[in-house]
Amino acid sequence: MQVAQLDELTDGPVAVEVDHPSEGPLPVVLFRLPDGEVHALLDECSHGAVQLSEGDFDAHAGTVECYLHGSLFNVCTGAALNLPATQPVPVYPVRVEGKHVLVDVENPLKEN
């Protein structure tokens, strides 16, 4: 499903809402790395249930820090990199077609 335009992903994380056929609207956060790759995570810290899109994004390290308790997550894999978070954040497949960013929330990536 198309969720954003590529040129919107220039100044840090972008929060979007994506309709999941059976779960309803899901909060998703998009990240664009310096190499141009775009990644999508569930926009919710696995520890504190706050929006990751409000945290500090380090594009060069490929990490986002939860603003509430400081947990770092890898934006490519969703892996929790430090405590207090111990669980990964769901990662969704992203496809860029021309200027359009598409995210598949029905098929989260399994290895995170």
TrEMBL record:
Keywords: 2Fe-2S, Dioxygenase, Iron, Iron-sulfur, Metal-binding, Oxidoreductase. GO terms for molecular function: 2 iron, 2 sulfur cluster binding; dioxygenase activity; metal ion binding; monooxygenase activity; oxidoreductase activity, acting on paired donors, with incorporation or reduction of molecular oxygen. It comes from the Bacteria. Residues 1-20 are annotated as: Disordered. Residues 1-103 form the Rieske domain. Transmembrane segments: none annotated. InterPro entries: Rieske_2Fe-2S, Rieske_2Fe-2S_sf. Gene3D superfamilies: Rieske [2Fe-2S] iron-sulphur domain. This is 3-phenylpropionate/trans-cinnamate dioxygenase ferredoxin subunit.
